[in-house]
Amino acid sequence: MSSVQPERAYVGLGANLGHPEQTIMQAVQALRANPRLTVVACSSLWSSAPQDAPGPDFFNAVIAVQTDLSARQLLDQLQNLERQFGRERPFPNAPRSLDLDLLMFGNQVLNEPDLTLPHPRMHMRAFVLEPLAEINPRLHIPLRGPIAQWRQQARGQVLHRLKSL
């Protein structure tokens, strides 16, 4: 472990190919096994229709982790885990075997070609907001404000809570 102060990060998990429920549970287990991460909270599993994309319904969850990794290092590890689960990116919003999104990393604000923090669309998606609010209902999204206001705006998006992970 480095001497860097641990940071709280939020990771969105999603899948809609293969066995998505099982995939999400296995991905959470893989993240729990990572010695550089401590999973401090895990939402329930949720389902929703894909947004702006074809394919079957998605299964989603959000976890909170403490880590001494940088945001870039954490993103790299998330993308490596996606590849281990067979993630391909044939076109934007394609169906996926596993999608791991770095939603927030502390209060950092970044705008780089392949890493934007907070995640640029997280505040518009009930499948992110509801699981995120489940584990931190008072969360403040940098540049966006309280999660409660965004949940209100996304309330028309159909989402179903399935079970605890």
Q: What report would you give on this structure?
A:
By secondary structure, this protein is α+β, with helices and mostly antiparallel strands. It has one domain (7-164): 7,8-Dihydro-6-hydroxymethylpterin-pyrophosphokinase HPPK (Alpha-Beta Plaits), CATH 3.30.70.560. It is built from 4 helices and 10 strands. The strands form 3 sheets. Strands 1, 2, 3, 4, 5 and 10 form a 6-stranded antiparallel β-sheet that branches. α3 (126-135) runs antiparallel to α4. The chain starts with 6 loop residues before the first strand and ends with a strand.
Short description:
The protein has helices at 20-33, 71-84, 126-135, 147-153, and strands spanning 7-15, 37-42, 44-48, 58-67, 99-105, 110-112, 115-117, 140-141, 145-146, 160-164. With 165 residues, the protein is α+β, with helices and mostly antiparallel strands.
Give keywords:
165 residues; alpha+beta; Alpha-Beta Plaits; six-stranded antiparallel sheet; two-stranded antiparallel sheet; 10 strands
Q: Which structural class do the helices and strands define?
A: alpha+beta
The biggest sheet amounts to: 6 strands, antiparallel
Order of helices and strands: EHEEEHEEEHEEHE
Number of folding domains? 1
| Integer-rounded radius of gyration | 15 Å
As a percent range, the share of strand residues is 25-35%
* CATH uppermost class: Alpha Beta
CATH H-tier superfamily: 7,8-Dihydro-6-hydroxymethylpterin-pyrophosphokinase HPPK
Count of beta strands: 10
- Counting H and I runs of at least 4 residues, what is the number of helices? 4
